């Protein structure tokens, strides 16, 4: 699953984590200011970023682009020397490109969040003072439009590239399995595992990986903002006064939902795995029946299909209470960030701009902490596919 596409996967992923930590440490221990040695304006790293699309080509951003490219080149060069995997241009440079686009998407969200304050405060000022210049509204709307145009364009490019990335991963797995087909073809459902499971595994791994990295980068970008904004919300319902109230409110709520859904959905991965087994057995008998008159007899098919029906009915039952729990949590989640702000709103400590900004930042941080909640159904499917492919590969390991 991994060694067909990534160079020496175990060491590759450990080295990736190590290199990521090294770069984060260097960046936040002064590296973001090193651009001054290359001619960037003095103090560019601490300069306030403009509220608009021009922030994406400000000196601070340009220095990060250069840093990211050089760091990726060093990492790719290292693995070019120590590995001869034919897919590593896609697995290394392709992964880096996707990683960069995820980071940029988070920065687009930060830019939009910064735009909330002047836009909504302008609206509040006009409503309070009996009106204002309509052209100011149009100008602020265009600021958002320019940011959105950049974000949407890059998102489409990333989606196009990611589709090719996933297909290359599937191709690598397909070539690996077909090269060992003589040893694998006797396994039940071998054709399905090579044709379907490889495609689904690559797609789901990419989706979950992208969402995980996005959640981590969102936390890195928005958590400091939430710490700063917590000073406007010193009191939260039930608890009362609390330092860093919004941060704690996001963590506790997400942790509660994660544990709840993990407990409620604990049986689902095994049921999904069993579902694929009984489906494969039924499909295999039907395929044999196409070429052999003595196979796929009604009694045999009835018995095999009864197993399919039994497993599906069990799945329906367990998914029913899982979906009920997830839906109720989702509905409460919609109201949660507003309820947290009620004491500060009632005390008149927030403006309309701050309410929208806090709601945006709080929502981003809360969603990042809720990664497992939002991805749990997909994780269940991935665990099922992984179990099937792992059993498949165990023949080669032996």
From TrEMBL:
Pfam families reported in the protein's UniProt record: SbmA_BacA
Protein name, as recorded: Peptide antibiotic transporter SbmA
Gene it is expressed from: sbmA
Cross-referenced NCBIfam families: PRK11098.1, PRK12369.1
Sequence intervals crossing the membrane: 12-30, 60-79, 91-116, 143-167, 208-227, 247-268, 312-329, 335-355
UniProt GO cellular component terms: plasma membrane
Molecular function GO labels: peptide transmembrane transporter activity
Superkingdom to which the source organism belongs: Bacteria
Keyword terms, alphabetized: Membrane, Transmembrane, Transmembrane helix, Transport
Statement: the UniProt record of this protein carries the keyword Transcription regulation: no
Annotated GO biological process: peptide transport
Presence of keyword Transmembrane helix: yes
